[in-house]
Amino acid sequence: MTAVHHSHDRDGATIAAIATPPGPGGIGIIRISGPEAKAILTRLFRPLKARPTVSHQLTYGWLIDPANERTLDEVMAVFMAASHSYTCEDVVEIQCHSSYLVLQEILAVVLKHGAVLAEPGEFTKRAFLNGRIDLTQAEAVVELLQAKTGEGLQIALSQLQGSLHDQIGTIRDGLVAIRAVIEVAIDFPDEDLEIINPKEMLNNLHLNVISPLGELIADAERGKIFREGISVVIMGRPNVGKSSLLNSLLQEDRAIVTEIPGTTRDIIEEYLNIKGIPVRIIDTAGIRENAEAVEEIGIKKARQKQESADLVLMVVDSAMELSEEDHALAASINNQHVILVLNKTDLVPGKDLQPYRDAFPKFTPVEISAKEHQGLAGLEEAIFSKVSDSSDHWDPGHTAVPNVRHTNSLVGALAASRQLAEALQENLPPDLVAIEVQSALDHLSDIIGETTTEDVLDMIFTRFCLGK
Ligand code: GDP
Fold this sequence. Notes:
The protein has helices spanning about 35-45, 100-110, 120-130, 135-145, 150-160, 165-185, 190-195, 200-230, 240-250, 295-310, 325-330, 355-360, 375-390, 405-425, 430-450, 455-460, and strands at about 15-20, 25-35, 45, 60-65, 70-80, 90-100, 115, 230-235, 255-260, 270-275, 275-285, 310-315, 340-345, 365. By secondary structure, the chain is an alpha/beta fold. The strands form two sheets. The chain has a seven-stranded mixed beta sheet with strand order 3-4-5-6-2-1-7. Bound molecules: guanosine-5'-diphosphate.
């Protein structure tokens, strides 16, 4: 693949960055890429045994500041020749002790000796620009770093290995074969009808292009929840057990991260892993109709959260009669997916809860005791099946899952292919048919990054962290 994009003035520069996260740790890595990489290493590195630098061979020694011969750290250094490196340029990695000071000092000396500070994602961007990976694989690197569940990770790894790239390639081959025939027809206008066999071409178009495009778009829809996750809002009047529910869900599953710590008046967000789906769960502790002034802001925020959530858990206290407040709250929910959580069932064993279900016939009922950790598996099952329709027989590690950007282009390619089918059906002149073929091909080129514009590329690569 030939790269068509260039990041202007930085072309040819040697870049460097700290590649490991900040903070004390076992090993910290400084990464350098570009034509000067090896020369910089030679200037700063004093190997224990002087011998020529061999590509991909880790060497022990000391890193020094040549200005004053001061020792910076005890390190292992490796040079990776452009032919087999992450960026397709000469790369040097220096492994030192992961002390913020050491890393900063080494980086400063590296920058003084001919490197410029790398931008976020620039190493991977170079791997893409130099043609080692396509854009879908570069995007997979970010996704791999940010994956929140095992399933999300599988999707990223499969994409990094080229699953999407390969499928797009196969569809492109189908279009290119059609284009080849049409080009011959354009060159021999008198015989175009004999050259183009519309029936056969339509068959091939459906088989090799239109139906695989449709499948990829369907996979995108199916995989979306694993990749992007869902948001769930917990609602209910005070004391029905919202916070208890959140806590017991967090205990049940490993919480992924705690994002915003808050008081009970505030909105609390936590991340859960429910059957592979990253779930952002939001406890709107303060929500109620007759709010005190201090709660106003909290309530407004809660309403916004509810409206944009993928799913609402409406919690009621099954040990108490339903109140007007419960009904008012339920009436205010205009979300498509709502689960009615009948909590505190431990307080009323054997009680007939049918009247509670009947009160809110549109909501899916689940009985739990947040306090006794009962019914949580059933609740998770209900959450999963509400948001994931047909994902059961779906293997994220073996399916390409297009993201939003890919899907937009796939939809464009599908529309163009359908136009193409019409053009063939109507026996339009080959030069008009060729326009549709090219349009479909252009959409596919966008996905793998052959024709992607600079601003789209920037958007993708700025999502990376420094040093990647
Ligand atoms: P919130 O205001 O809706 O967040 O309600 P909390 O989670 O703070 O719970 C209010 C009270 O109900 C607390 O005293 C909880 O211990 C209690 N509670 C919550 N869930 C249960 C439950 O399933 N069973 C019982 N017996 N008590 C519960």
